[in-house]
Amino acid sequence: MAMIIGLTGGIASGKSTVSEIIKNLDITVIDADIEARLAVGKGEEAYQKIINHFGQSILLNDGTINRAKLGEIIFNNEQERNVLNGIVHPAVRSRMAAKQEEAINKGESLIVKDIPLLFESKLTNTVDRILLVYVDEEIQLQRLMNRNQYTREEALARIQSQMPLKEKKELADAVIDNNGSIEQTERQLFNILKEWGLKKEV
Ligand SMILES: CC(C)(COP(=O)(O)OP(=O)(O)OC[C@H]1O[C@@H](n2cnc3c(N)ncnc32)[C@H](O)[C@@H]1O)[C@@H](O)C(=O)NCCC(=O)NCCS
Ligand SMILES: Nc1ncnc2c1ncn2[C@@H]1O[C@H](COP(=O)(O)OP(=O)(O)OP(=O)(O)O)[C@@H](O)[C@H]1O
Q1: Which of 7, 14, 51, 68 is at a distance of 20 to 30 A from 23, taking alpha carbons?
Q2: Which reactions appear under catalytic activity for this entry (predicted)?
């Protein structure tokens, strides 16, 4: 039986930073953000549904979805966010399930699923353990503004569209505190994986 770890956190809390370290251990990471991008590619079912609801003006000149524009809409309007989630999430779930099946068939004993909205989308029953990447809100805000060149307002809209990290912290099986250096984060990750029975020397 493979162990499925759900890696979660908030926007810009450090999930990708942690998942890169995990990938370097030759462990398969299935990334919900990547699957969500693929699910809205030209010609996909979700792509058409997005145009039907949000209109042609949501497209760039090359016909692909204008993600910045869609983001502006959905991070400032809960109703529109729910519509988009209803279109994209079913496709993401089936894509992730297919990848998980593939990894299990290859005999992999540990699989990590990076799912930012694990709690919000009630997907906790699709994983065996929940690993949360935590940062204080002010650091989260600063890192998000720096990484995406967002204004404080744009960054706050995104943070506030998710369950507060403090609440998620109470619901996780293990927490990595990513307020410090990457080295400190790496050490915490290795300790948790060892505790959870990872055989590899880390
Ligand atoms: C709104 C979109 C077009 C913005 O794209 P953009 O390239 O700017 O951001 P990206 O996709 O890289 O997401 C960055 C982060 O935003 C957060 N986020 C994305 N969508 C949502 C959402 N619906 N609700 C809350 N937070 C979200 C996540 O923490 C994610 O890691 C895109 O995020 C999207 O299609 N979202 C809906 C699908 C979704 O829920 N994806 C998240 C995981 S399945
Ligand atoms: N310990 C750290 N020290 C300094 N910077 C960090 C640390 N961890 C992550 N960062 C930086 O903070 C930003 C957010 O990290 P990362 O992209 O890993 O977050 P994420 O949770 O995957 O975000 P998203 O939900 O948007 O996909 C990045 O620019 C990253 O380089």
Answers
A1: 68
A2: 3'-dephospho-CoA + ATP = ADP + CoA + H(+)
Task: Name the pTM for this structure.
Answer: 0.96
Say whether 34-107 and 1-27+110-202 share the same fold.
yes
Strand residues in 49-194 grouped as ranges (E): 110-114, 129-134, 174-177
User: So what's the ipTM on this one?
Assistant: 0.97
**Which residues approach ligand 1 with their CB closer than 6 A?**
11, 32-33, 36, 40, 67, 70-71, 74, 81, 84-85, 88, 92, 116-117, 158, 161-162
Which sequence spans correspond to the domains of the chain? Answer: 1-27+110-202, 34-107
pLDDT per residue as tens, the chain (202 positions): 899 999 999 999 999 999 999 999 999 999 999 999 999 999 999 999 999 999 999 999 999 999 999 999 999 999 999 999 999 999 999 999 999 999 999 999 999 999 999 999 999 999 999 999 999 999 999 999 999 999 999 999 999 999 999 999 999 999 999 999 999 999 999 999 999 988 665 5
- Contact criterion met (CB below 8 Å) for 152 and 112: no
